[in-house]
Amino acid sequence: MSFSIDEDYARRLKRRHLASRVFERACLVVTWSSVTILAVLLGLLLYQAWGWLDLAFLTRHNHYEADRAGVLSGVWGSCWLMLLTAFLCVPVGVGTAVYLEEYAKPNWLTRQIRLNVANLAGVPSVVYGILGFTVFVRFFGLFDRPQTYALNFGMTSIEFHLPLGAVILSGGMTLALLSLPVVVIASQEALRSVPASLRHASYALGATRWQTIWNQVLPAATPGIATGVILAVSRAVGETAPLVVLGAATQISFNPGRINSVVDIVRSPGKLANVPFDSFTALPLLIYGWVNEIDAERFAHVAAAGIIVLLGLLLLMNGAAIYIRQHFRRKIRW
Amino acid sequence: MSSTPPPLKAIHVPGGPVPPGSSRRTANGGEEQPARPPKFVTSNMSFYYGAHQALFNINMTIPERAVTALIGPSGCGKSTYLRSLNRMNDIIEGTRVTGDVLLDGQDIYASDVDVVALRKRIGMVFQKSTPFPKSIFDNVAYGPRIAGERRRSTIVDLVEHCLKQAALWNEVKDRLRDSAMALSGGQQQRLCIARALATSPEVLLMDEPASALDPASTARIEDLIFELKQNYTIVIVTHNMQQAARISELTAFFCLGRLVEIGVTRQIFTNPEQKETEDYITGRFG
């Protein structure tokens, strides 16, 4: 060392560098241990699913025999649930966040709403299941027995029951409620991070509050909002407990709305109207069902295959969502 | 927007003694002042952030089609005064104005004044350039679009006209679709001026528009201000004494929330009436 430092300082410096290195290693160990556990889990699943996860498994409906079980109705069910959940919770969640961040005056009521939204994010999913069962599936038991209604729209007719029963709409609304707090909080965060100078510049040009929010604030917040929605909805779609409580079936051998392919939608879009009012099953439900089968040994393989399909679906969804987010980010020309 | 309380005339100022200057400034009487009709007349205006009073009994006249510079040490209230002229302070919770602020003889704080329409008449340029994260074209077109202009050809002409007025057209005419964020600091600030001009305002308020720019860009902005004052009433806040001396007809010196002195710029800088003004200008404080 070319410059002189006193001995005490040098000794302490050595200790400080040591502590720094130790901390770095500790973080490394923690990171790798969790990654390793995940890798082991995934490896085990793949090993178990090997030979069971094939095209037939993907294109078959569920069956009580392990060899003939499939995920098709579950994949469709989960996809519809996902769409409906996102469709319901985005406008409500973003609207709530815009109100709380942009309009609401900071008074007692707003503070209570904020606090409770944060609390709702911590409520266990099974509670939402009970809520959905009472409100959507049974309509508080106000009906003695289910009534069937049919609406005709020339090309298509919609048939539904009141109370709704365990249909996709009930599931979608329940999962939307479940994701709502997370969407609201993430959207609030995104709105808050939009610089005030952007708002002021817009106001100074004679923009109304709504024009400022719509033209400046929301576009700037969209990537952040999208991230929150993706996280919340993929979390919700992986949920089993609320769907079990709702009473969704596992042994279902048709796809919701009898839509079996994208071609079906193009050919007869009228079928879409029936999707929300159809019974359904979902991937996590199927997996839950298989884990509880008596023929545990063989169904373990089926369950592993199902889990891989679910993970694949969520990965695909996240990929699509990340693409959407990047698209919006490019549209804002920072 | 919250409606403001009716203007209280003759409010008694709490706090310290009023400096002698504020009671006898020469807003409209000075014989050397250019004979222009007044655009803004502020009388007995006080401004409060909650319980904190930021401006005390401001009496001031801002003439039409001229540059009025507001100078003074940091925190003296000159920016607050500037922002109260287009009611940008309304955005901040708990602010309050008493006294009168008249634009062409009309009280802008009257309950029947629509603040959106008011701000269309009064353009504003901020210290930090704030282009929207959109294309150069969309930035300039924003004002007319939100005002309801839909005709494409009108907007195209207007954008070109405003960019020319802001002396930016030649630099950006081939890349109007590019992001405004890619422009240099000086270009961004001229873009903000073009954007403000696009709503066809009568007044331009500028809050230290050149304080973050290099000397060359500053000179361009100053040239621009010199051009624009033919058609617009300009009020500019600046920390740069030379700048105030170069570009303005009138200079107002603020200190501790009070208007100490307002007068013809040359006189303020060569022979100020108040000792405080002289001290500030010669660099003895501030």
- The CATH homologous superfamily of the largest domain in chain A: MetI-like
The geometry of chain A reads as: globular
Helix content of chain B: 25-40%
Helix proportion of residues of chain A, in percent?
A: 55-70%
Radius of gyration of chain A: 25 Å
Strand tally of chain A: 2
Span between termini of chain A: 47 Å
Q: Please, how many domains of chain A?
A: 2
Secondary-structure-based class of chain A equals mainly alpha
Task: Provide a count of the helices of chain A.
Answer: 12
Reported by name, the CATH topology of the largest domain in chain A is MetI-like fold
CATH fold label of the domain at 20-125 and 205-281 in chain B: Rossmann fold
What topology, given as strand order, has the largest sheet of chain B?
Answer: 6-7-8-3-9-10
Distance between the termini of chain B: 36 Å
Main sheet: strands, sense, barrel of chain B: 6 strands, mixed
Name the chain pair whose interface involves the most residues. A-B, 22 and 30 residues
Give me the strand/helix succession of chain B. Answer: HEEEHEEHEHHHHEHEHEEHH
What does this structure look like?
Chain A is mainly alpha-helical and 334 residues long. Chain A has 2 domains: 1-49; 54-331, Orthogonal Bundle (MetI-like fold). Helices cover 68% and strands 4% of the residues of chain A. Chain A contains 12 helices and 2 strands, in the order αααααββααααααα. Chain A has a two-stranded antiparallel ribbon. Chain A is globular, with a radius of gyration of 25 Å. The two termini of chain A are 47 Å apart. Chain B is α/β, with parallel strands linked by helices. Chain B has a domain at 20-125 and 205-281: Rossmann fold (3-Layer(aba) Sandwich). Chain B has 11 helices and 10 strands. The longest helix of chain B has 14 residues, at 152-165. Chain B starts with 19 loop residues before the first helix and ends in a 5-residue tail after the last helix. At the A-B interface, helix 7 and helix 8 of A face helix 3, helix 4 and helix 7 of B.
